[in-house]
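Sample entry (121 residues):
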Amino acid sequence: MLERQEKIAIVTLVCVVGIVLATHLLFDAVGRTMVAAPYSEEVPDGALTLLEGKVDEVRRTSTGGHLVLTVNGTSVFLPQDVARTLDIGEGENVTLYGIAQTYRGKREVVVSSAADVRVFK
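Predicted structure, serialized as tokens:
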């Protein structure tokens, strides 16, 4: 049988876990829009960015099955696990979240999840 203090500790722990879980779900639903900076060349590497616009080009990499999009003149890298779940074509409008980085001297946005891409046909 648990002592009174042990019961209080368990209830407190369950409440803390519930609060953390609720905060995580809330942030996952609306948090990106609050912390993502609109993409520009001045956004530092590693920053979460929001990029919206028209897909000018879609091409597959020669190895790995990755996709590289050009959205409003900005290169967007979609790893294979993200690319295989999306159907994106030239001329479509997209809204995406990704991490800004410099790859081989060129700026790009790297998307880490298919949930971070919305396609408007």
